[in-house]
Amino acid sequence: MTAPAGPATATAPADPADPPPTAAPESQADLLPLEHHPVEALAAPAADLPAPADADSRVQDELTALLGAQQVATFLLTDGFARRAVVTVDNLARPQAVARLWPVQPTPGRFAVDDTPQQGPQTIAADNADRYRAFITFAEAVPLDPAVQLYARLYPLFQTAYEELGYPGRHFNDRLVQVLDHLLAAPEPAQPLAVQLTPVEGEVPSLRPWVRYEFVDPQLQALSSGHKLLLRMGLDNARRLKAVLVQVRQRVATGVKVQQ
Length: 260
Prior knowledge:
Blueprint: E1 35-36, H1 56-67, H2 69-75, H3 81-92, E2 122-123, H4 130-141, H5 144-153, H6 155-165, H7 172-184, E3 194-197, E4 213-215, H8 218-221, H9 225-232, H10 235-252, E5 256-257
Antiparallel strand pairs: 1-5, 2-3, 3-4
Helix pairs in contact: 1-2, 3-6, 3-7, 4-10, 7-10
């Protein structure tokens, strides 16, 4: 949610002028949902939506009415919100999720590790989880029924952004359900997670070493960006966020079997 793909948290500002990356699915199976989830079953799309290029003010007004101006300003990035949300959802199940295109504000502070031990690798600091708690509390407070109704009304903006990402003929809501299922399947290791700095070649010093940590366990390092994010935020935070995602899935999954 509020961190990039690697174990550390980047704080690079988002640049909405940059185009979103073209999706590069690992395989066609990655794009074929077992079910179609028609968004029309949630609510009728708004009839007066502006063109995607002019939609920012409308989206901000709608989010402000739903969540309040202070919450929106604190936690969300509303410029290009639909595009940001679509790119991020799609990438959470992939190895990389570009932080500057996320629809949420960067996690405050820096990724923290325990002091270097006498023997063995460093581990993610227990208090690193504190950085995510405000966002988790925000997510838990979102009124989900009105939020899903708003998503359905604005859905043409998300669908257009998804097709522009490189998926003509596909349905963003199907991908959303697919990624929610993926996130809910994230592992929940209880032991402290060992991390290490990735080596930097050359003589140029690394001015932000906290963004260079990776998991020591190759199986954890090979996980998707979404799974690694859930690991970084700590077990309690991850379980609280998963509880919210379960509720979201129950509301956006409408489930029509696809003919094989």
